[in-house]
Specification:
By secondary structure, the chain is mainly beta. It has 2 helices and 7 strands.
């Protein structure tokens, strides 16, 4: 939902997820690639609609990079509808989609390998 968003059930507008919740904080500020996990989260579309008042926009690619966003802050708490209490909110800005690149993901923040950056069109060979 960071890149593609979901439809607000009251207004019909696209609502982008503006925070990413983590149990740990980060001092990192800057761009990050957004990876869509191989399997869906343990939350159903009905649960998402009930908790966040949005409807998912459809099936999304899985197990690869789908976009990029900037982490501009890390705070606790945050007023976003997406904020999970007692977590750190990585505050996100300037999301934009990238052409899907199938790539194995992993948890945490780390430096993207040059090969991935090149496949995403972010590094000139």
């Amino acid at each position: 939902m960071i890149i593609t968003g979901a439809t607000d059930v009251q207004t019909g507008a696209i609502a982008l997820k503006d925070v990413e919740n983590r149990s740990w904080k980060t001092s990192y500020r800057g761009p990050v690639l957004i990876h869509a996990s191989e399997g869906p989260d343990d939350i159903t579309p009905a649960d998402i609609e009930r908790r966040f008042a949005v409807r998912l926009t459809g099936e999304q690619p899985r197990s690869g990079v789908i976009g990029m966003v900037e982490i501009v802050d890390c705070v606790q708490p945050h007023p976003s509808r997406w904020y999970a209490p007692n977590h750190f909110a990585f505050v996100l800005r300037n999301p934009h989609p990238l052409t899907f690149v199938k790539w194995r993901g992993a948890l945490s923040l780390r430096t993207a390998p040059p090969e991935l950056l090149e496949l995403c069109g972010l590094l000139i060979p």
